[in-house]
Amino acid sequence: MGRLVLWRLDGVNRGMNDFTLNALAPKTDDRILEVGFGGGALMGQILETGAALVAGTDVSEVALSRARKRYAAAADRPQLARCGETALPFADAAFTKACAVNGIYFWPDIGGRVQELRRVLEPGGRLVLCYSEAGPDGVPDFPPDRVEAVLIAAGFADVRTDTTYDRENGTYHRTVVVRSMA
């Protein structure tokens, strides 16, 4: 069942993954973290850019197992780690860029997770969050002003929220791009 859900996530998130990849603007010297990679499709796109390092975390052992198999033959395999509540298992300033697609709904402590993302990003690093304003239950719980306030409180700057339309799935979503402060 878990594999089916992950396969479905790859399809549902396709448009959001594309917007996120574009906002990340990966370069060959980037070290990029994807938090909550789910089906792993975006991670594959990031690997194809030739980024210096790609890492991913997920709470699901099924997602981790699938990603290990999916990218076993990749020349530069991603670093994968199981990660639950808040703490990220990486050193301070380990990454130049980080992202999460449809993950914000599952962070029990959004402020804590955002602070952890700030911690693992180098000064001036970029964070991209892509999500639907309404959570999985349809309740509009993530309006831009709320998410932006949490990011600013965690020490991010240059906060920009764009609303984009995913033609394939017929949905609107938010893409937030921020820079970590020095």
Explain this structure to me?
This protein has helices at residues 2-12, 14-24, 41-48, 61-70, 110-120, 144-153, and strands at residues 31-35, 53-58, 79-82, 95-101, 121-131, 156-166, 171-180. The protein is α/β, with parallel strands linked by helices and 182 residues long. The chain has one domain (2-180): Rossmann fold (3-Layer(aba) Sandwich). It is globular. The N and C termini lie far apart (44 Å).
Biggest sheet features: 7 strands, mixed
Which of globular, elongated, flat, extended, rod-shaped describes the shape? globular
> How many whole angstroms does the radius of gyration measure?
15 Å
N-to-C terminal Cα separation, in Å? 44 Å
Tell me the CATH superfamily. Answer: Vaccinia Virus protein VP39
Total DSSP helices: 6
CATH architecture: 3-Layer(aba) Sandwich
CATH class category: Alpha Beta
Low-confidence stretches: none
Helical/strand content category? alpha/beta
Count the beta strands.
7
Along the chain, the helix and strand elements come as HHEHEHEEHEHEE
Total individual domains: 1
CATH topology: Rossmann fold
Portion in strands? 25-35%
